[in-house]
Every structure is written in C-alpha cells, then in structure tokens.
C-alpha cells in the first residue's frame, strides 16, 4: 500500500505543474488586462502600476517569478481587490465553499446510494421507475433554474427560508443552496449505484448466499461492497467540484465563496486571483483523487498491483 500511495503522489507533481503552466499562459492570452478601465488611466500611472505588479517584464520572467512565489506559498496580491492578497481572499471564501460543499457531498452520496440501492432491489417496479425519472430530471434541469424556483416557492411564497445571503453561518441560509448543489450529484450517484448494484446482485456468490437463506437485507449489504467501486471512483471529482463551490449557486444565493471570487477575477482580468483559484481547485482535485485511489485499493486489493 505504501508503494502504491507513493506512486500516486509522485504523479500529482507533474500534473499540478502542467495545470499551473497552462493556466498562467492562457489567462494572459485573454483580451484586456487588469488595469483596462472604462475611463483609461494616465499613461504614466499605468506604467507605474505595471512596474509595481511586475507586468512590464517579459512573460517568461513573470512565469518564473510566479513559480518561485508559488513554491513559497505566496499567491501574490490581488489586482482588483485593493489592499488584499490572494491568500487572504481565498481564506475568506474557502470556509463558506467548504461548508456548502461538505453538506452537499454528504447529502448527494448518502441519498444517492440509498435511492440507487432501492431502485436496484426493485428493478422494473414503481420505485425503480420513480428513481430513474427523478435522476433524469435532476440531470437535465440546470441549477440556475432550480435555484430561483426554490427561492420563489420556499422564500417568497411560503416564507420558510431566507432568499439569499450568508448570515454568520446560519444553517437556514444554506438549505436551498445545498439542495440545488446536491441534486445533480444525487442523480449521478443514484444511477451509478443502481447499475453497479444490479450487476453485483447477479454475481454467483450472491446467488449462493440467497440459496443459503440469507435475508434480503444481508444480500444487499454483501452486494453493496462491490457495487460501491464505481461510486467511489466518482467521489474524487465530485468532492472537488462540490467543496470548491459552485459559481452559479454561490452567485444566485449571494454566498461569499471562492466561486464568486473566481467570476469577479475573470471579468476583471485579475491574473493572480484567477491563478490562485485554479491552483486551489487543482490541489483539491488531486487530493480527492488520491483519497479515491486509496479507498478503491482498500475495496479491491488487486488495484495495488497496477
């Protein structure tokens, strides 16, 4: 297991390097710059700003300086949010995104596995059809439609929940965003669980357990271990996506997470803030994929040999 984990860790370094390199040069290719305003700045002021932020240097030199700063853990200053560093802004937004994503992750995988298992155990029956219809709706209706609909129904009509905002971590402000963020993931997990569970229930050892008179619950629990392998594989990218927040959900519900920072930074050509967000998301993806690889190896020891 140690050798397996070491190989996976070694593969993360070049992957992160490629992500940082591509992101650095692609954001520079976008038209406009961080100091392009509707009312142009005085040329001398613009020249001073470019010199202060080292944008007057050749691009390859800027790239080398950014890599050196990144190795020290320094994401640099924000170009658009004055008097704040990128690390400070991410430090403000990350707890909100992590809280939102964690709740959505628990809801989506918990409910998705349960629904998928029930659908597989009652294949081609009412429960199965209901789960599949719900999963299809969850995948096809975008969250920028579901979000406002929930706001109209639960907030403006029934007055059960606040419309938007983040009131010092009040859980009532997170109920609708968590539901909207989790719905597509619930649909995917339910479909994955159902398909893999149906295959697992047809395995020879499951038939043997049934022949020995094991209860339906016992059979389901035995089959679930093998059926969870595809679901665990999906856990990495899903967790990284949910825990780093959703651009649309955070914007619709006015949550101060890193998703909104990323949108504002992209619109304002805030190079350092965009890069900081990209690096953070890349690290989350790599870390969660590593966790998934370890879980997968624990569920199926044959994976360690690959």
From TrEMBL:
The chain crosses the membrane at residues 9-30, 98-121, 133-154, 174-192, 238-259, 271-299. CDD domains: TM_PBP2. GO terms for biological process: transmembrane transport. PROSITE patterns: ABC_TM1. It is found in: Cell membrane. Residues 94-296 form the ABC transmembrane type-1 domain. It holds the Pfam family BPD_transp_1_N. It is a multi-pass membrane protein. InterPro entries: BPD_transp_1_N, MetI-like, MetI-like_sf. Keywords: Cell membrane, Membrane, Transmembrane, Transmembrane helix, Transport. GO terms for cellular component: plasma membrane. Belongs to the binding-protein-dependent transport system permease family. This is ABC transporter. It comes from Candidatus Raskinella chloraquaticus.
């Amino acid at each position: 297991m140690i050798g397996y984990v070491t190989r996976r860790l070694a593969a993360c370094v070049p992957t992160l390097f490629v992500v940082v390199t591509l992101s650095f040069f692609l954001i520079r290719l976008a038209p406009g710059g961080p100091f392009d305003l509707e009312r142009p700045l005085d040329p001398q002021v613009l020249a001073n700003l470019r010199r202060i932020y080292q944008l007057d240097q050749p691009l390859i030199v800027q790239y080398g300086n950014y890599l050196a700063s990144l190795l020290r853990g320094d994401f640099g200053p924000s170009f658009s949010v004055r008097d704040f560093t990128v690390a400070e802004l991410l430090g403000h937004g990350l707890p909100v995104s992590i809280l939102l994503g964690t709740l959505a992750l628990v809801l989506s995988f918990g409910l998705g596995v349960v629904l998928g298992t029930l659908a597989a155990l009652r294949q081609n029956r009412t429960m199965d059809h209901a789960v599949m219809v719900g999963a299809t709706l969850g995948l096809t209706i975008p969250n920028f439609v579901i979000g406002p609909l929930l706001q109209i129904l639960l907030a403006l009509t029934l007055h059960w929940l606040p419309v938007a905002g983040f009131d010092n971590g009040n859980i009532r402000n997170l109920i609708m965003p968590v539901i909207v963020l989790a719905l597509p993931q619930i649909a995917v997990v339910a479909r994955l669980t159902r398909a893999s569970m149906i295959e697992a229930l047809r395995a020879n050892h499951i038939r043997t357990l049934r022949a020995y008179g094991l209860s339906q619950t016992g059979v389901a629990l035995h089959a679930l271990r093998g059926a969870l392998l595809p679901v665990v594989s999906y856990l990495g990218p899903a967790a990284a996506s949910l825990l780093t927040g959703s651009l649309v959900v955070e914007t619709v519900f006015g949550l101060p997470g890193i998703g909104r920072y990323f949108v504002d930074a992209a619109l304002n050509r805030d190079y350092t803030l965009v890069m900081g967000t990209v690096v953070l998301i890349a690290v989350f993806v790599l870390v969660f994929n590593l966790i998934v690889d370890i879980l997968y190896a624990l569920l199926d020891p044959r994976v360690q040999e690959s």
